[in-house]
Amino acid sequence: MDAVTFDAVTEWTAAQQRVIGLVGAASSRAVESRVPACPDWTVRDLLSHMVGIGADVVAGHEPDDHDADWTAAQVASRRDRDVAELIAEWRGLTGPMCDHLRQSGDRPVTDITIHEQDLRGALRIRGATDTDAFRHVRDRFAGRLGDRLGDLPTVELRGHHWNWRSADGDPAVVIAAGDADLARALVSRRSAAQLRAWTIVGDVEPCLGAFAVLGALPTVDLAE
């Protein structure tokens, strides 16, 4: 499949505005609720992380692996800020972030796309799975899954409109689910139990570790 092409500035700013709209309309109770995909964080913590990514990226402070200490510092340093203050900080970073995207690549689009869906899962508000950015992240991480599967037998992801195989030939393992669920599974946002339940051909067990590309698979089933 050809890679999805997209305008990184357009996609990032659109996602930023959607996130701001979601958190700006959330109740105080919702803001302090836990994010199922990031169970150590509340919604406000997740927003702090998203703002912190922007601040660190434009400042040139971005480790290659986005390690836990880096992300924890973003949240901790904003612990005493409310949603309005976080949004104001983020809006102030929009121009510099757009400059960064034009000059240095689209990695921040991947971050905001994944975390927008994490936020939607916490707030139980579906949406934004039909964007070019969402499809780009899906295709990028499908490639990473293929690399991680290595010499394992061919795996097919069979969606309603999107299909992917890790290699040529008949698949030994077929996982069938909705397109959005498969895309989220590729970024470690679906549980092993969900992947097992969606497997209609073969044994997915040897392949589960390959799906844990962004950390351990969730211990509970996730949905957005």
UniProtKB/TrEMBL annotation:
<feature type="domain" description="Mycothiol-dependent maleylpyruvate isomerase metal-binding">
    <location>
        <begin position="13"/>
        <end position="107"/>
    </location>
</feature>
<dbReference type="Pfam" id="PF11716">
    <property type="entry name" value="MDMPI_N"/>
</dbReference>
<dbReference type="GO" id="GO:0016853">
    <property type="term" value="F:isomerase activity"/>
</dbReference>
<keyword id="KW-0413">Isomerase</keyword>
<dbReference type="InterPro" id="IPR034660">
    <property type="entry name" value="DinB/YfiT-like"/>
</dbReference>
<protein>
    <submittedName>
        <fullName>Maleylpyruvate isomerase N-terminal domain-containing protein</fullName>
    </submittedName>
</protein>
<dbReference type="InterPro" id="IPR024344">
    <property type="entry name" value="MDMPI_metal-binding"/>
</dbReference>
